[in-house]
Amino acid sequence: TRHLILVLGDQLSLTLTSLADADPARDVVLMAEVLQEATYVRHHKQKIAFIFSAMRHFADELRGKGFDVRYVTLDDPDNAGSLGAEVVRAVEALRPQAVIVTEAGEWRLMEEMRGWRQDFGLPVEIRPDDRFLCSHAEFRHWAAGRRELTMEFFYREMRRKTGLLMEGEQPAGGRWNFDAENRKPASPDLLRPKRRRIEPDAVTRAVLAMVEARFPDHIGRLDHFGFAVTRAEAEALQEAFLENHLSQFGATQDAMLASDPFLNHALLSFYINIGLLDPLAVCRAAERVWLEGRAPLNAVEGFIRQIIGWREYVRGVYWLKMPAYRDSNFLEASRALPAFFWTAQTDMACLSTVIGETIDHAYAHHIQRLMVTGNFALLAGLLPQAVHEWYLEVYADAYEWVELPNVIGMSLFADGGVLGSKPYAASGNYISKMSDYCRTCRYDVKVKTGEGACPFNTLYWDFLDRNGEKLAGNHRLAQPYATWRRMSEAQRQAYRQSAARFLARLDAGERV
Ligand code: FAD
Ligand code: DLZ
Ligand code: SF4
Fold first, then answer.
1. Closest ligand by atom to 283 CA
2. What is the ipTM of this complex?
3. What is the Cα–Cα distance from 265 to 453, expressed in whole angstroms?
4. 3-state class of 339 per DSSP?
5. Staple partner for 299: which of 165, 234, 249, 330, CB 3.0–4.6 Å?
């Protein structure tokens, strides 16, 4: 064997740099299902099953192209338990001249890989991952010397670089960003096409049985499993989204409806993140829909911004700021996660709905992650690292490079403002305006304090009060702090006491 090429579970792309010069006659591809990767956090059952099944199908795809694939299943009696140990086993069996790998998406594994040359005593070539638009060097260059890393400016660079929605040097439609036309509240639409669930094939069914047997105590249920696990299936879902949902993407982006967990979201992050779909190709396809007049610019621009803007930007911030970023805790929050994060057993209808859907589908859409679970974690002062692990665990699209900045930065403001200029803190009024959750809730969103008050209301003001030293100087919070100061002392005291009572019950493990 000339090269041993290790392909990771989120590297299922034929264009991978590690495969670029691969010679099926002389090289062997190694793929391994290992306990270490499945349990460094206790991933949702559907997430593990999705990745293993997609890996098995990708191995078949490579074999179809003539590659010799050494595929190690989790239940292989010789399975060594970690990627490093599986490389060692393959090196001993095949005696390659070198190991080739594309860089890992997560810091944890990348650090380990950097030691492999030393550990294994043979050349280990780590190649860049060019499935992103913006390289590490390019992002560092963009960030250098800037006082603030404003996503919107980074996004414009990516628009210029790709030419997406550009008319020469000018943005299509004369503006870079059409969000002012997006973000309408929820209203049910019975005509919205239903989402297609991909029926598990024999390979997936075998994986589902194995995952149920091996990870019975991980969160989630498998009977709802309907993920695409091949490139062709993922492409079919992409087409269906572009056809049926993209035109309404902007309008319903921030809406939440108890009867519809998916609204007009893409449900494509899973496939983009493991390499079954190419982010730029998805954006070009979306642009085409606009050019053909089948979706308005506000929808298409908003969608493309999420991918070439936010997705690239959070990856840039991750590699710029790690490893210290992971431990950020600007607001010094320390509360443990309540048990209902794993059971959905809470009387707060918004949280029980979002967490229940997370258990069912290993998915929640952006505004649910940000303004329901994330907002609660922020207001209740939950420990950022515990919140981070939960998000990494429960969502099938979660890898640390994309999850951590969204959680630590965007949602919890634990980075003190690297990613956003103010915390996304909101009272119950926001959730009530954007969703229909409050209608069935035991709490009353209109009640501010005392018995039956919506916990988001009391926690919101208590959060501002509690963090006054750190946040009152933030000019984007000037208005709420002015409102707080204008309240009577009795009113402020009522907020503090209601919040303290709620948090005490939370800490005691009582049902809230
Ligand atoms: P859509 O809403 O339809 O958006 C289209 C695409 O844009 C997505 O597929 C995704 O590739 C990209 N995108 C949108 N928003 C973001 C964003 N903020 N950051 C990066 N990419 C984005 N996304 C992940 O892929 N993995 C995560 O682990 C993850 N954790 C998150 C945690 C929190 C607290 C928050 C607030 C957001 C998180 N996101 C994460 C971003 C976003 O919520 C998901 O990408 C999105 O919900 C995926 O569903 P979708 O494909 O239906 O996305
Ligand atoms: C997430 C994941 C899981 C659950 N299992 C595996 C696995 O068994 N083998 C593998 O190669 N990759 C797996 N992955 C994806 C890796 O964790 C991912 O490649 C790293 O976190 C780097 O992004
Ligand atoms: Fe959530 Fe408060 Fe509305 Fe209940 S009343 S659903 S707790 S925002």
1. 1
2. 0.99
3. 32
4. coil
5. 249
